[in-house]
């Protein structure tokens, strides 16, 4: 297994992830979480695996100095176009995470690592690099694909054979990640190096709704309810993604 980059799937990624309610919910939760904790001053921000630049642009629009690192050229080009159309400047680096310490010399006030770990051959290997890239008084915004939610989804669908074989990874052109993360395992890896200060679920109910109900629901209502229940102790852990805001120790 090797790290998965989205060179050939950039268009499909854009349509599948950000073409509807799923992407809107994801952005709403991430942005609301960060709005609660970001200081009222310009920050140096690094977005690792920046994709099409949605979160980076949102931060640039709020006056922060943003660097986007993305290994897939089609994705990075999409981010460049997005910034150009919005009239905002940024630094763009085409590089995998393994090369960042050799190119970046100063740590950042805020490091984003969203939907990256689950596409890596060894998801935990990136954590020391993220720690070095984050300033001592900075923070890490970490969002990852939740293995618990994937198991629950398969239970609801009656995919018991898949569960017995522990076949959780997506295959071929699938946008199901190759390494869904067990949040308890990740917490163990973070312990001693990071303090997880806030946790939210991303899409804690939307993906479990029958399609007929999804089609009827208004986006404004979906966003309201997802934000309202993202930290509820009974539903947070059902999020398709989990968003953890961490401080280096």
From TrEMBL:
It is an enzyme of class 2 (transferase). Its EC number is 2.1.1.-. SUPFAM superfamilies: S-adenosyl-L-methionine-dependent methyltransferases. One of its GO terms (molecular function) is methyltransferase activity. The lineage of its organism: Bacteria, Pseudomonadati, Pseudomonadota, Gammaproteobacteria, Pseudomonadales. It catalyses: 5-carboxymethoxyuridine(34) in tRNA + S-adenosyl-L-methionine = 5-methoxycarbonylmethoxyuridine(34) in tRNA + S-adenosyl-L-homocysteine. GO terms for biological process: methylation. Belongs to the class I-like SAM-binding methyltransferase superfamily. CmoM family. This is tRNA 5-carboxymethoxyuridine methyltransferase. Catalyzes the methylation of 5-carboxymethoxyuridine (cmo5U) to form 5-methoxycarbonylmethoxyuridine (mcmo5U) at position 34 in tRNAs. S-adenosyl-L-methionine binds at residues 26, 49-50, 70, 114. It comes from Metapseudomonas resinovorans. HAMAP family: tRNA_methyltr_CmoM.
């Amino acid at each position: 297994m090797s790290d998965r980059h989205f060179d050939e799937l950039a268009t499909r990624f854009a349509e599948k992830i950000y073409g509807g309610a799923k992407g809107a919910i994801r952005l709403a939760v991430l942005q609301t979480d960060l709005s609660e904790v970001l200081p009222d001053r310009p920050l140096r921000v690094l977005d690792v695996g920046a994709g099409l630049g949605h979160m980076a642009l949102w931060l640039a629009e709020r006056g922060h100095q943003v660097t986007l690192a993305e290994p897939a050229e089609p994705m990075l080009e999409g981010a460049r176009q997005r910034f150009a159309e919005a009239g905002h400047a940024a630094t763009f680096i085409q590089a995998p995470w393994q090369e960042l310490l050799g190119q970046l010399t100063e740590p950042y006030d805020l490091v984003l690592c969203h939907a990256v770990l689950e596409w890596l051959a060894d998801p935990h290997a990136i954590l020391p690099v993220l720690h070095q890239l984050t300033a001592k008084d900075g923070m890490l915004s970490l969002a990852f694909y939740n293995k618990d939610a994937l198991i629950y989804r398969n239970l609801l669908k009656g995919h018991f054979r898949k569960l017995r074989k522990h076949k959780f990874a997506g295959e071929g052109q699938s946008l199901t990640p190759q390494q869904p993360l067990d949040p308890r395992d990740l917490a163990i890896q973070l312990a001693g190096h990071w303090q997880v200060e806030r946790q939210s679920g991303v899409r804690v109910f939307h993906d479990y709704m029958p399609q007929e109900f999804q089609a009827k629901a208004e986006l404004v209502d979906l966003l309201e309810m997802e934000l309202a229940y993202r930290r509820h102790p009974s539903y947070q852990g059902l999020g398709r993604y989990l968003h953890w805001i961490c401080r280096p120790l």
